[in-house]
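User: Here's a chain of 228 residues. Predict its fold as tokens.
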Amino acid sequence: MSARVGVVVFPGTNCELDVAWAVEQLGGSAELLWHGERALDNADAVVVPGGFAHGDYLRTGAIARFSPVMESVARFAAAGGPVVGICNGFQVLTEAGLLPGALQKNAGLAFLCETVECRVETSASVLTGLATPGAVLRLPINHFEGNYVCDAATLARLRDEDRVVVRYVRNPNGSLDDIAGVCSEGRNVVGLMPHPERASDSMLGSEGGVVLLRSLLEAAAAGAAVAS
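Assistant: Prediction complete.
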């Protein structure tokens, strides 16, 4: 049985079909999860995709964190389930307290839409389990508020605990310590600003996201096997 990935949809989400397509191209199955429902439909992994959840009013993700589905996502994560937030989804996970830090406006107040190089910093996460530390992946970014910030104590902890998952080779947005993605203490919750689903086929210009999505599917399948 293929790994089942639930893809959360908020009003304003616009990358849910991209994620579902990429997951299915790589052998998984995808199910869209409406934010107003609590059921995760027996998902083996959950992705919170990009877009503009609830129009990103107040702060990005500040309203989305209160959606009923996020209660279930939080319980799923607490039980060790793989959860990945991409771009706006990363912002939602920080607002929900599932990941440390916050995302603020890019340095220079410029919206960025380009392909960047990201270096894998650890293979000890559900998103990088099949990746090689030091490998450089070409991944698209598409954001205005991707500048990662946290306090000094949090940054020290992220470094000491090997929880910076990917870093920008050339920092495009002013993100602290070149951070492009981080993981939780349990290493099962990951947030990143680049879009691996948009780099999952050579026709899209890059396959840099394939190893990340395959890692997620493997982690999801392993969790499903344990649960059964």
